[in-house]
Amino acid sequence: MIDVVSVASEAHPLIKTGGLADVTGALPAALAAHDVTVRTLLPGYPAVMGALEGGRVVAEMPDFFGGFGRLLAGRGGGLDIIAIDAPHLYDRPGNPYVGPDRKDWPDNWKRFAGLSFAAYEIGRGLLENYRPDVLHCHDWQAGLTPAYVAFNAPTRAKTVMTVHNIAFQGRYEWSIFNDLRIDFRAAQENAIEYFGGIGFLKAGLQTADALTTVSPTYALEIKGPAYGMGLEGLLQVRAEHLTGILNGIDIHEWDPMTDLKLVQHYSHNSIEQRAGNRQALAQRFGLDDAPGPMFSVVSRLTWQKGLDMLVEVADDLVAAGGKLIVLGSGDAEIENGLAGAAMRHPGKVGFVRGYDEPLSHLIQGGADVMLVPSRFEPCGLTQLYGLRYGCVPLVSRVGGLADTVIDANEAAVEAGVATGIVFAPATVEALREAIRRTARLYGRDKVWRKMQRRGMKSDVSWELSAEKYAKLYRRLLGMNENADSND
């Protein structure tokens, strides 16, 4: 048995702002089949503390980055949780990273240095009768953990650093260094300094025993200047330690045969029953009942996601006979552009600001097309949900999108392997043509149904990826990589 502490700033269903939470929430259960036990270390946000069941104090930290802190262990959302109860850092409403003004909390460096330091102390044996074998650190918020392990008093725990999106790096002024509680060797050996300041993610990439990211293609992309965001040189140096392991999804939570958030259940053998969900969506978004493909977006509305391009082609989408529904929030300019499209095309374009988990399930279960026109996408989960629910993905050929969707070119259609529409490069004109191509494919009813069924039968679970993580842990620990309960 391998004991792992998953160090994360969010985990579904306790606290979620994006795909990171879906991963950290689903991976522990998948790893259990491979003799890996996971305890998830989370900041004690109100949502986490409120969901913690049977919480018991397992450690106290009287001087914890400016106040009293303690660790509480219990269950929450189906996970084994260690919560950092430090109200001066985490007892704040709403989004875990930004305040009511939608700006980053100014002490985020301290809040997530605390997360990393607590993980390090757990690795050293802070909890009675518990010493984890692996500290698995997710994104920049946990990035200092490997640096603490490398430069402070030693611990036997191995460290894994997973990059979910290299664009978010946790960069701060050098003036915070003396308050980080890290040995000065971290500065001397250039492990934490980043362009004259401090880089949390850089520190993790520099010092972790193993590096992973969330798709094989993204692992290649981030070693080059187009996608490496300034860290490509470091990743080239550490390339032998970097592995791309594709994300999966929780196929029990995302199951069109049992999903209580759907109006009508269905399987790949009864795909025509999706019509009930489509009708409910049309009513929710104020669309008419005219025929034509219903395109959908469930996303943060940002430049990265390519949704400024969608604003430019919305009129063309309607002209091609399509309809568009969007659930999301983000850049004000994109929000306003989509709202404008809805006003220009009543009955054809619908826009709901914000995020609504039940509605996101209904969209996957009723829309015809899931649009993911990202300029870069480490893995992406929306297209995996789309495959699972027969909502055909239309994606750009980057990162995990390229790894998970097989383009419906004529050869792939004839060979019976196509699962979606893939376009490149990520430009307005290429997206416009991809939308037109999708509309034409939708008009070929037999081809479209086969593509839906093929996607629904794709393996988008965590099973294979969890096996790869388990083998990675075993390799780090000097164990037989294949010695697990399934062998």
Write a brief structural summary.
The protein is α/β, with parallel strands linked by helices. The protein contains 19 helices and 18 strands.
Helical content band: 25-40%
* Assembly category: single chain
> What percentage of the residues does DSSP assign to strands (E)?
15-25%
Shape: globular
Q: Give the N-terminus to C-terminus distance in angstroms.
A: 14 Å
- In CATH, the topology of the largest domain is named Rossmann fold
**Highest-level CATH class of the largest domain:** Alpha Beta
Structural class: alpha/beta
Give me the CATH superfamily of the largest domain: Glycogen Phosphorylase B
Low-confidence stretches: none
3D structure, described in words:
With 487 residues, the chain is α/β, with parallel strands linked by helices. It has two domains: 2-248 and 462-476, Rossmann fold (3-Layer(aba) Sandwich); 271-456, Rossmann fold. The protein is built from 19 helices and 18 strands. The chain has helices at residues 19-32, 46-51, 87-90, 108-123, 144-151, 185-188, 200-207, 216-221, 232-237, 275-285, 307-319, 332-344, 357-366, 382-389, 399-404, 410-415, 428-442, 445-456, 463-476, and strands at 2-7, 36-43, 53-61, 69-76, 79-85, 134-138, 158-163, 171-172, 193-194, 197-199, 210-213, 242-244, 294-301, 323-330, 349-353, 369-372, 392-396, 421-423. It has a nine-stranded mixed sheet with strand order 3-4-5-2-1-6-7-11-12, with helices on both faces. The mean pLDDT is 96.
